[in-house]
Design a protein that fits this description.
single chain; 122 residues; mainly alpha; 73% helix
Length: 122
């Protein structure tokens, strides 16, 4: 029964980061940016590929953070330089990231059962 609650807490923490990203873009920046949806899956795809390639979990985290920030910067550049509506530029980048995620992973799923994760060191 404890595994159920632990899984629920971990899943809630993961989705909380997604909610905070959307909250920041909607309330603080006042821009309806949905790039967060694409960058959330980008981080998952890159993490799955690197964990299955035996990378250290502590090195994956900053790497994924930088790539997510790069995706957000691309949305900002499309919005400011190309004068595309903020919502449309977010939709464009989010849709492109789903295709990029499939190209990064090479297949639709990567099994991570019994592989070390960030929480394995605890």
């Amino acid at each position: 029964m404890i595994n159920f609650y632990l899984s629920a807490i971990l899943l809630g923490l993961g989705f909380a980061s997604l909610a905070i990203g959307i909250f920041i873009s909607m309330r603080i920046f006042n821009i309806p940016d949905i790039t967060t949806d694409g960058t959330f899956t980008l981080g998952g795809a890159i993490t799955a590929v690197l964990i299955s390639s035996s990378w250290n979990s502590w090195l994956i985290l900053p790497f994924v953070f930088i790539l997510g920030a790069f995706a957000g910067a691309i949305t900002g550049l499309i919005h400011t330089r190309l004068k595309v509506n903020a919502l449309l530029s977010g939709i464009l980048v989010m849709t492109a990231l789903y295709s990029i995620n499939l190209a990064i992973m090479g297949r639709s799923t990567i099994p991570l059962v019994n592989l070390p994760t960030l929480f394995s060191s605890f």
